[in-house]
Design brief:
single chain; alpha+beta; 3-stranded antiparallel sheet; about 40% helix
């Protein structure tokens, strides 16, 4: 196991999180995709004060990794553990055009991801997540 995989496993252990990975289908994943890829449903789950919390999302595997189940590291490294702020802030940070509908759709997905991760993890845990690279 390489250091990246160890880092992801440490995060899951320290946050007492479970990760479940289920294959969905082989299809186009991103808007404008020219090639199909393996698509998985990911579920992050943890029990906090006797309440189950979970976040489900889809993950499009790298084209180069077709037929390989994504690792915990590959999945966690793709999650954004930082609040991107307003749409204007998002565009300034990542270089998107504020008049772009496509940019707004991406912003909504990123903002929703952060909101869901914030329900699972504390600020310090989100900082640990953002350091997985």
């Amino acid at each position: 196991m390489n250091e990246y995989d160890k880092q992801a496993r440490r995060f899951l252990a320290q946050t007492e999180s479970g990760m479940y990975v289920d294959y969905i289908k082989y299809d186009y994943y991103f808007d404008g995709d020219k090639y199909k890829r393996d698509i998985y449903e990911i579920k992050l789950k943890r029990i906090l004060r006797h309440r189950n919390r979970e976040y489900k999302f889809t993950f499009g595997q790298s084209l180069a990794k077709r037929g390989e189940k994504p690792t915990e590291y590959q999945i966690l490294a793709c999650l954004g553990g930082n609040d991107v702020g307003s749409f204007e802030d998002f565009c300034d940070i990542f270089g998107y055009d504020q008049d772009s509908i496509k940019a707004f759709k991406i912003y909504k997905k990123v903002a929703d991801e952060f909101k869901n991760l914030s329900l699972l993890y504390s600020d310090s845990e989100l900082e640990m997540l953002s350091e997985i690279q």
